[in-house]
């Protein structure tokens, strides 16, 4: 059974040659991946003296059991091995070379060629010219790596081409061997190898195999012809597993023809590098070695070819975009008959979904994905489950199913912290949970929830926020717990039951005892900034009114001693019909003054939406324009209090214009600065008042009763 699915597979991978790059001995991870990156950049090579292009797929890890399926689909076969090693002294060299041979044996039966890159060895050994070994003094001095890889790929091509020609020429009289997948071998013991049925099966499978080799060798037209013949032969003998593979080959070749930009998601990833292959060259006719004319893969999207007969031939064999999907579905239905072909079936579903995404056929894609979810593979490790759900999420995102995508990403997040993992990855869990927020119409900015109707399912959003709190706690970050719980309380208050309100506030108080909530931004390791969450609903403020000073303290304007009339008459007539915007209402001047050094009052009408008594500590005014000493109040509001007057006081220390911008509170251990501009329904008589210099005060005492 093939055990490890490759969720990143796409249809165009069928034309690639698989090369594994691995370290031997102890190689620093950073150095290995630096070289691996350079090697894997050489993923497209033009074949010398031809118009064909070879595509290479590199992997630094590949399970040997998957390699056993290489006859079934040749792109699964490891044909090249590149090993990287550190070797600083000549005496270590024999052992290093021995390890290289052992590594080759792992994939031995399928390898076309292999290379060993040795870093650090200099001297006599390094100077001997060898084809399979390259010596470099260090990881920084290795300019020829890319050239070596190109030569290596050419040698792979020579072997591929000889295999293709060998298998493609019909040697009459020779018995065609029966190609098998690993689990079939025991079923074919003792079969009559001379029956027509058996011979047709051998012919059909070999045709399909030759189609694979043609596709890898850059001969799209020939591969289509072989796949069509294979489909007919295999259908006639009900060889369903291989019929599925022939149909999938037909789909892959047709996808490569219709979508030259690739279906893997990285737009343009399949274009030729450096533009060395022009569109005309890509479409030119080329006489092949054995006298037959081959066509290279048409690289122009419109596929207009000078040789129209060849083009017509290709178009006839090539499936239409609609047929591609029908044939994929047929192939998947054949695969599903074999429980050992679960991985093949799953990967075919993923490839078909990527094509449907390009065709913008989202509903069909979602049906196929739903099928992929239920394909039963062996017991997966937690890491494989995370990968599986993450890729399902990515595919749903690609077809525009954002909520479904978020659903699977959330499952992947939960899987990161599964109880069976010895060291749960809470950081990875938290990071994945954050990525699910847009799918559930959630952001972490309370301003997005301050106006208008609520978007998304509140019950799911609350569950997600609770999970963020829990992950933050397990990461050992109480400040994050406080921030997420504050956000939950502020934005979801209308959806919390009475019991939930009590539970959330108790949790919040237990966290703020260790780490009070602040108005600072919290920066996460990946640079994301979480904005502060002021509690504008605890309590809810309905109106703000600046009060005049008590009668005895009010300043009075005195008429000038010269008797001049101070008020200047305006020619404009007052009209009450002026629409004041909220901003104008805020900034409108008040017709009384406050006095420097005197206690001034602002009255707020507030109510408590909680089903229990709300203690607000340290409630005071936020002002600008004048130095102002706020005298904070502590208040206790009864449960669901209804409107309740609260007077906040302070003393202006200097003169000028003072504006009351809002108020600050401390509730459940969270400090909040609540600005009136962010409070939608607040009524006010204006927020700006003039503070005049301190006045002398006349005080009369008398023996008469007051």
The count of β-strands is 21
Class computed from helices, strands and strand pairing: alpha/beta
CATH C-level name of the largest domain: Alpha Beta
* CATH fold topology of the largest domain: Rossmann fold
Detail the topology: elements first, then pairings.
Elements: E1 16-24, H1 29-40, E2 44-46, E3 53-59, H2 64-67, E4 78-86, H3 93-106, E5 113-119, H4 124-127, E6 133-136, H5 145-168, H6 196-216, H7 220-236, H8 240-258, H9 279-283, E7 285-287, E8 293-295, H10 308-317, H11 321-335, H12 342-358, H13 362-373, H14 382-398, H15 402-416, H16 426-436, H17 458-474, H18 478-491, H19 498-512, E9 522-523, E10 529-530, E11 540-546, H20 582-587, E12 589-595, E13 600-607, E14 614-624, E15 628-631, E16 633-637, E17 644-652, E18 656-667, E19 670-675, E20 683-684, E21 688-692
Parallel strand pairs: 1-3, 1-4, 4-5, 5-6, 11-20, 12-21
Antiparallel strand pairs: 2-3, 7-8, 9-10, 11-13, 13-17, 14-16, 14-18, 15-17, 18-19, 18-21
């Amino acid at each position: 059974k093939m055990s490890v699915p490759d969720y990143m597979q796409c249809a165009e991978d069928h034309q690639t040659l698989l090369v594994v790059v691995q370290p031997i001995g102890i190689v620093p991870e950073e150095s290995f991946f630096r070289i691996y990156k350079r090697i894997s950049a050489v993923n497209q090579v033009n074949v010398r003296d031809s118009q064909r292009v070879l595509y290479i797929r590199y992997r630094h890890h590949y399970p040997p059991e998957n390699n056993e399926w290489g006859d079934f689909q040749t792109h699964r076969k490891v044909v090249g091995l590149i090993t990287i090693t550190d070797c600083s002294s000549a005496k270590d060299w024999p052992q290093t070379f021995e390890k290289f041979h052992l590594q080759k044996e792992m994939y031995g039966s399928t390898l076309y060629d292999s290379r060993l890159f040795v870093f650090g060895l200099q001297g006599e050994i390094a100077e001997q010219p060898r084809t399979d070994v390259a010596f470099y003094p260090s990881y920084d001095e290795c300019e020829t790596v890319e050239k070596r890889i190109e030569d290596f790929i050419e040698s792979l091509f020579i072997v591929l081409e000889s295999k293709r020609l060998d298998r493609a020429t019909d040697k009459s009289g020779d018995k065609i061997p029966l190609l098998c997948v690993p689990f079939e071998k025991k079923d074919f013991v003792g079969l009559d190898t001379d029956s027509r049925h058996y011979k047709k099966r051998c012919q059909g499978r070999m045709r399909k195999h030759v189609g694979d080799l043609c596709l890898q060798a850059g001969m799209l037209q020939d591969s289509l012809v072989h796949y069509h013949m294979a489909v007919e032969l295999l259908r006639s003998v009900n060889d369903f597993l291989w019929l599925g593979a022939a149909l999938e080959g037909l789909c892959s070749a047709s996808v490569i023809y219709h979508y030259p930009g690739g279906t893997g998601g990285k737009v343009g990833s399949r274009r030729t590098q450096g533009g060395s292959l022009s569109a005309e060259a890509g479409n030119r006719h080329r006489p092949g070695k054995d006298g037959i004319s081959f066509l290279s893969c048409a690289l122009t999207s419109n596929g207009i070819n000078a040789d129209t007969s060849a083009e017509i031939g290709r178009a006839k064999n090539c499936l239409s975009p609609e047929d591609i999907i029908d044939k994929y579905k047929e192939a998947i239905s054949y695969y599903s008959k074999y429980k050992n072909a679960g991985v093949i079936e799953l990967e075919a579903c993923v490839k078909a979904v990527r094509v449907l995404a390009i065709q913008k056929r989202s509903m069909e894609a979602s049906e196929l994905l739903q099928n992929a979810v239920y394909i039963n593979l062996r017991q997966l490790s937690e890491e494989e489950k995370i990968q599986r759900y993450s890729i399902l999420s990515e595919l749903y995102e690609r077809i525009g199913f954002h909520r479904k995508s978020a659903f699977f990403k959330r499952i992947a997040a939960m899987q990161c912290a599964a109880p069976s993992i010895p060291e749960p990855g809470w950081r990875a869990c938290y990071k994945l949970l954050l990525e699910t927020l847009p799918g559930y119409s959630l952001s972490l900015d309370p301003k997005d929830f301050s106006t208008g109707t609520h978007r998304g399912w509140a019950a799911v959003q609350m569950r997600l926020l609770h999970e963020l709190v829990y992950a933050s706690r397990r990461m050992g970050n109480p400040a994050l717990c406080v921030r997420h719980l504050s956000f939950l309380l502020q934005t979801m208050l209308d959806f919390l039951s009475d019991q939930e309100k009590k539970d959330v506030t108790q949790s919040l108080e237990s966290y703020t005892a260790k780490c009070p909530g602040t108005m600072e931004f919290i920066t996460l390791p990946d640079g994301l900034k979480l904005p502060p969450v002021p509690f504008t609903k605890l309590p809810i403020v309905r109106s703000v009114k600046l009060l005049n000073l008590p009668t005895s303290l009010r300043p009075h304007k005195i008429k000038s001693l010269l008797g001049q009339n101070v008020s200047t008459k305006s020619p404009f007539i007052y009209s009450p019909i002026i629409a004041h915007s909220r901003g104008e209402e805020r900034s409108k001047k008040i017709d009384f003054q406050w006095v420097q050094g005197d206690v001034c009052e602002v009255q707020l009408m507030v109510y408590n939406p909680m089903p229990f008594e709300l203690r607000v500590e340290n409630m005071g005014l936020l002002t600008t324009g004048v130095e102002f000493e706020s005298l904070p109040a502590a208040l206790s509001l009864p449960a669901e209090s209804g409107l309740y007057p609260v007077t906040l006081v302070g003393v202006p220390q200097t003169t000028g214009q003072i504006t009351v911008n809002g108020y600050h509170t401390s509730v459940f251990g969270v400090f909040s600065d609540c600005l009136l501009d962010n409070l939608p329904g607040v009524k006010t008589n204006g927020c700006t008042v003039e503070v005049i210099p301190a006045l002398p005060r006349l005080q009369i005492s008398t023996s008469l009763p007051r």
